Amino acid sequence: MADPRINELASRLVRYSLNLQKGEKVLIENTGLQPELVRALVRESFAVGALPLVTLKDQEILRALYQGTSEEHMALMAKYEYERMKDMDAYIAIRAYENINEFADVPEDKMGIYSRILYQPVHTNERVPNKRWVVLRYPNKSMAQLSNMSLEGFEDFYFSVCNLDYAKMSKAMTPLKELMERTDRVHIIGPKTDLRFSIKGINAVKCDGKRNIPDGEVYTAPVRDSVEGTIYYNAATNYRGMSFTDVQFTFKQGKIVEATSSNTKALNDILDTDEGARYIGEFAIGFNPHILHPMLDILFDEKIAGSFHFTPGNAYTVADNGNRSSVHWDLVQIQRPEYGGGEIWFDDVLIRKDGRFVLPELEGLNPENLV
């Protein structure tokens, strides 16, 4: 018998996240075969009168494609994926990686070809601004291991996070969104971190289960050239199949002028992908009450309670500072006391200290008010 939580998740994705309607076309793309959820999504799509299409992908096959690719080959792949995406009304991505480092030995120039020629036109330029979409993971042994949990324990955690009452969370987000849109100057203080920038005039967006599952953040972007100071990211990260710890940036006039990490060369290779990769495209504050520790999966880590992320690379058009890049790398700092604490100030007013919101209108986003 199928786990009833799978059917509940499928219903939330189809009816709440995407709000699929009769006759709409939805592409369900699954990397790492998870037939139970794919079947449930197909059934639920048909139940509302939508037209589901399914693509199944495998990490090891993708690795072989990326290793042997060329600009001509990737342009051919991108041609068909772009036309299909353009024809869709909605998109669901289920990614369940058995090995987060599967692409670690794919040469960086090959991954750059994929990012620039396929991912950017198909996803960054077409899917993200023009389609209704939602991206999620699915519990497997690899994710359980990264979380230091049993598979059963991780499944319980996963469904509690993904089936959260996002409509309730959305209401609590509104005061933060409105405050961010009134704010000019941001000052962030923490271990090895003293960062200043402006967010004046840039839209703020609530992430309340409509794009990512799990969810729980409000994001905007810094004025592109306004970032000054240093930041240290205390959450480990994985990007393009490589893992990094102790990432630290120094900014001058918005640009990352110094970057170090556990793999400084690979870090700078990524930042040198294009001009926009050394500028910040997103600033977001995370507050999902169930997600407390990093697990090298950004869909979870960027929502950690008491965290924020400060993202090198492409800005979203709905919160746009004009930065364009094939890179979009959400790097996370956690400010709860056990991670060293920290403060976020808006226009010289303290809004969050050690991971807890201190303004009365924002207290609804503290963990005890969201569970």
TrEMBL record:
GO terms for molecular function: aminopeptidase activity; metal ion binding; metallopeptidase activity. The keyword NAD does not apply. InterPro entries: M29_Exopeptidase (IPR052170), M29_N-terminal (IPR035097), Peptidase_M29 (IPR000787). The keyword Metal-binding applies. It holds the Pfam family Peptidase_M29. GO terms for biological process: proteolysis. Belongs to the peptidase M29 family. This is Aminopeptidase.
